[in-house]
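We read letters as residues; the fold follows as tokens. A sample entry reads:
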Amino acid sequence: MTKVIRDKAVRQGTGLAPFRSSALSYGMFYLQTILFLALTIGLAPFYFIILLLLYPWRKIIGPKLVRFYSMICLLIYRVKIDKVVHYARFKKKGRRGCLIVSNHSSFLDIFTLSALFETVFISKAELKYYPIIGQIAWLMGVVFVDRGSSKERIRVLKTVANGYSGRIISVFPQGTTSRISERLPFQRGIFKTIELNPGIAVLPVTLYYKADADIAWSGQSLRENAKKVSGQKRVHLKVIVHDPVTIEKYRGKTAAEICKMVEHSILGPLQMKY
């Protein structure tokens, strides 16, 4: 009789396990969301004042402020960068300015790149009109683009090509987030910056999440994806810095050909075991 009761209790406990797991996941999601909003709302006024007071140096100070913010965000979302491969390649090129191109899997990508490379981003134009956040992004030197306008895209290419010196700007040429299995192609437009400015260095970077299939933001709302991220005990990722792309290395190649080569170098490691 005792054994029957014990077996029944075990079965009932096992049945409750998924519910407990779900409850913990929801609890962590709300905790992380509260911490993230508190951090963002708390820092925003101070960042705005600092950037206004030090306006002439905003493009130098801005990325440092974003890096500090991003490092805390990585802690909030329990992200552990297991390894950064060939980081010395960035140290060699980054100080003189470079354009970082990367695959795009998650909202965590922005925090990761900012924390490691002290970078600003090319962002959609709508962000510029978000209260406070948009103004801070503009002061920091974020490059805004209206994706629906061909003239606007050309303007952004010229801005990046002519104004990148001493700055680190990041872009996701896939245009949106996706899973590894989807292998979204790169859009070649950003690689025209090499044609416009032969001195620019493009630094390809691979972001490889161990649990990519579980946390990649694909076909979900941001809220749904954030819940999946919160369900991870720890988010592990590996960052790979590839050889920089310069006009000397790819002289005579078109933007489309360079795009394909960079796409292969970035997406290639994602087919290997983590």
About this structure: The chain has a mean pLDDT of 85.
